[in-house]
Design a protein that fits this description.
single chain; 216 residues; 8-stranded parallel β-barrel; 10 helices; binds ligand LCLJCK34; binds the ligand Cc1nc(C(=O)O)sc1CCOP(=O)(O)O; binds magnesium ion
C-alpha cells in the first residue's frame, strides 16, 4: 500500500472509475486497462449485486485488477469489504452509511484512503471526525447501477455541503456522463465517480477520454 497525502488524494478523485464484473460488457481486466489508457485517475473494485463473484473468485479478480492498477500507478480502492482490502493491502476502502462504521474501518485500515458516502451535513461531519479522506455524494442524477440508491439529490447537495463549510474532498456519483460532468465540478466537487458511463461503453478508452476532457 502506498500512503498518499491529502493533495494527492484530491487529484486522484478527478476521474474515479468504479466497477465489478457484472458492470462490464467485456473482460474486466481489459476494461480497466482501457479505462486507464483513457485517463482515469482512481479505481474502485465494487463486486456487488445479482450475479457478482463471491469468495475465492472475487478475491482472484480483485488481485488481477489490483495488479493492473499497481502497474499503472493508479490507487486501488475496495468497496465495502474491509477484510479484503486489508488482506490485499489495497490503497483504500469506500464505505457507506449501511457498512461498517467509519471509525472502526479507520482502526483496521489506519493508513488507507478512506472514502465515506454521506447524505447530510451531520453524516459528513461524523465521517470527517472518524477520519474520512473524501466524501461520495449521490445519486446526483438517476442511476441504473445501484438497486438501493436513494432519491436523486441533484447538484444542490454538493452546493449545500460547500456552503455549510464542508471543505474535505468530494466526488459526485450517480448518472454522471460526459454531458453533465462539468456541472458536477462547477457545483463544488473535486471529481466525478461513475460506473456505467465507462464500464458499459462500447469504446471504454474513448468514453474515459471524453470524461477526462469534461473534468479538466
Ligand atoms: C465514490 C463512491 N461514492 C459512493 C458510493 C456508494 O457507497 P454505498 O452507499 O456504501 O453503496 P454501495 O456502493 O456499497 O452499494 C461508492 N461506492 N463510491
Ligand atoms: C455505486 C453508486 N453509489 C451511488 C450513491 O448514490 O451513493 S450511485 C452508484 C452507482 C453509480 O453508477 P452510475 O455511474 O452507472 O450511475
Ligand atoms: Mg457500501
Amino acid at each position: 500500500m502506498t500512503i498518499y497525502r491529502q493533495h494527492e488524494i484530491e487529484e486522484f478523485l478527478q476521474l474515479y472509475f468504479i466497477m465489478g464484473s457484472t458492470n462490464c460488457k467485456k473482460d474486466p481486466v481489459y476494461v480497466l486497462k482501457q479505462a486507464i489508457e483513457g485517463g482515469i485517475t482512481l479505481f474502485q473494485f465494487r463486486e456487488k449485486g445479482v450475479g457478482s463473484l463471491e469468495g475465492l473468485k472475487k478475491k482472484k479478480l480483485a488481485e488481477k485488477l489490483h495488479r493492473v492498477c499497481k502497474d499503472a500507478g493508479i490507487p486501488f480502492i475496495i468497496n465495502d469489504d474491509v477484510e479484503l482490502a486489508v488482506e490485499l493491502d489495497a490503497d483504500g476502502i469506500h464505505i457507506g452509511q449501511e457498512d461498517l462504521a467509519a471509525n472502526l474501518v479507520r482502526e483496521k485500515a489506519a493508513d488507507m484512503i478512506l472514502g465515506v458516502s454521506t447524505h447530510t451535513i451531520g453524516e459528513a461531519e461524523k465521517a470527517i471526525e472518524d477520519g474520512a479522506d473524501y466524501l461520495g455524494l449521490g445519486p446526483i442524477y438517476p442511476t441504473i447501477s445501484k438497486d438501493d440508491a436513494r432519491e436523486v439529490s441533484g447538484l444542490t447537495i454538493i452546493e449545500n455541503f460547500r456552503k455549510n463549510g464542508i471543505t474535505i474532498p468530494i466526488v459526485g456519483i450517480g448518472g454522471i456522463t460526459s454531458a453533465n460532468a462539468r456541472d458536477v465540478i462547477q457545483a463544488g466537487a473535486n471529481g466525478i465517480s461513475l460506473i456505467s458511463a465507462i464500464a458499459a461503453a462500447d469504446d471504454v478508452k474513448k468514453a474515459s477520454e471524453d470524461l477526462k476532457r469534461a473534468v479538466i
